[in-house]
Amino acid sequence: MSLQSPLGRVLGLGSAKEGTGHWWAQRVSAVALIPLTLWFMFSLLSLPALDYATVRAWLSFPMSGFLGVLLVAVSTYHSYLGTTEVIEDYVHSAGMKVLSLLLLRFVHVLVGGAGIFAIMRVAFGS
Amino acid sequence: MPARGRPTSPHLGIYRWQIGNSLSILHRLTGVALALGLLALCYWLVALAGGEQFYAPAAKLFASPLGLFALVGWTFAFLYHLLNGVRHLFWDAGYGFERAQRHVSGWFAVVGSIALTLSVWGLIWAGHRS
To answer: Residue A41's closest CA among B66, B58, B37?
Structure first.
């Protein structure tokens, strides 16, 4: 017979108190990405060429830079949410799971941050 | 987990493959591919900000056979993930669960994304030739 109380046995086994937060954030960012990604695709398609001068001139427009920053930010967030779900589903050992989730978070902030900073450099001409 | 022989789901070994689960798996695969595409996008932006001497090798890489293959793949991954994602959003809102609706919307996502990928790259190819 265990001396553990019924309460002690279930503590930490229940809800993580996050509820539908992850699910909802994924849906909201998905909706935001519909116009942002379509804008990006049609913008690139409408450029006469994708050489340095043309792309740089296009991204120097305030509206391109603004929407570009939003695109990279929301994509990074959505990608982070999605790949986190994949790791949580397939990586089972506790240590590897924490390690890969941490790595995933660092890589996303790094890549998204670099992309946003790059757009700002083009926008502000530095 | 207690060793009580509890049933596990969804028994992939005996699961009958059909359009529903195949498209669900493809949604996740294209999502992971697009996460790598985000890496490529940000590399391209950083190269653009770095100046012509950084943009030239990036442009060369994307125009290489492997680069073009990846770009076509990312185009398909994006368009499929977009169309099937809208399908998921309709489900989340409570619509489109009937068997016929699921099949029609599923095939629409597959055929639509392939057709749109071909259209996009047809446009690029036509623009390149003129």
So the answer is: B37
Residue B57: C-alpha distances to residues A44, A60, B37 (Å): 19, 21, 18
Question: Which residues constitute the domain of residue B35?
Answer: 19-129
Q: Mean pLDDT, to the nearest integer, of B69-92?
A: 98
Q: Is the CB of residue B123 less than 8 Å from the CB of residue A45?
A: yes
Q: How many CA atoms lie within 13 A of B75 on its CB side?
A: 22
Q: In whole angstroms, give the CA distance from residue A44 to residue A123.
A: 17
Chain centre distance of CA B45:
21
Is A82 in the B-facing interface, judged by CB distances under 8 Å?
yes
d(CA A5, CA B11): 35
CATH of the domain at B108: 1.20.1300.10
CA atoms within 13 A on the CB side of A72: 26
Residue corresponding to tokens 């279930």 = A10
Cα dihedral B67/B31/A75/B101 (nearest 10): 120
Question: What is the reported pTM?
Answer: 0.89
Interface of B with A in 82-121 (CB under 8 A): 82, 85-86, 88-89, 92, 120
pLDDT digits (tens, 9 = 90+) for B51-77: 999 999 999 999 999 999 999 999 999
- In this predicted complex, what is the ipTM? 0.89
Q: What is the number of domains present in chain B?
A: 1
Q: Do the domain assignments include residue B8? A: no
Domains observed in chain A: 21-124 (1.20.1300.10)
Residues of A in contact with B48 (CB under 8 A): 52, 55-56, 59, 118, 122
